Amino acid sequence: MEDFGLFETMFSARALRRFRSDAVPNELISKILEAGIQAPSGGNAQSWLFVVIKDEEQRRKVAAVYAKASKVIRYFYSKRERPSHMSEIQYERLMNSGVYLHEHMSEAPILLLACLKLSSSSNPADVPPDCERVKPEALIVQAERTRCGSIYPAVQNIILACRALGLGTVITTNHLLYADEIRNVLRLPGNVETYALMPIGFPRDNFGPVRRRPHRGGTARRLGQALAWLVSGRANIDWL
């Protein structure tokens, strides 16, 4: 197994959607999950739950729900404009890769569901009397984004751990259109919500490099100036 540095791992952990049928050893799965739970967690609640699906029949059932949801997502994508930084060929290749996974999700030897065990939401009436009133919808937004911030960093850790261990994966969320069906298939408790479905396996395609638009140097320079201003106490910055 190759030894990768952090940046090499990040820069080569591209989305991989085609997998060999080789089984993934349990010790690698354990390492991946250990990496996941090193991530930040809102309020240090650590309320994450990772469902590892190895059984072929269960994978097939989950993949069927994913395929049904993906048919809807493909329609949405057909109505969207191609991103300006991608050529027609690049965009077509991306779409074809996605469609392949839509139809072959069950072929990944591991399906991993990243979930959270939810607690009760805050009540606007519970806000201290010496604080300004909070809109109910603001509490809903705050709670949901806190949940996202408590599970997606773990998902990114899992992606990086997979890359370091020679495994391919990709984050998907299409299944959320029919989340209740996934819940029924896996008999998840009512207080558990899923946030990502990740196929994991030894890839049939090559790793990286990840291709991204370069950051704009002007933005970096302005950010550097902003930091200098903040350090010197001049915090009246409105252009960030």
What is the structure about, briefly put?
The protein is of the alpha+beta class and 240 residues long. The protein is built from 7 helices and 4 strands. It has 2 domains: 6-209, NADH Oxidase (3-Layer(aba) Sandwich); 216-240.
Features:
NADH Oxidase, 7 helices, 2 domains, 4 strands, disordered C terminus, 240 residues, four-stranded antiparallel β-sheet, alpha+beta, single chain
Give a verbal description of the structure.
This protein has helices at 6-12, 26-36, 56-78, 88-104, 136-164, 179-186, 217-231, and strands at 48-53, 110-117, 168-169, 192-201. By secondary structure, the chain is α+β, with helices and mostly antiparallel strands. The chain has 2 domains: 6-209, NADH Oxidase, CATH 3.40.109.10; 216-240. The protein has a 4-stranded antiparallel β-sheet with strand order 1-2-4-3. Helix 2 packs antiparallel against helix 5, helix 3 (56-78) runs antiparallel to helix 4 and helix 3 runs antiparallel to helix 6.
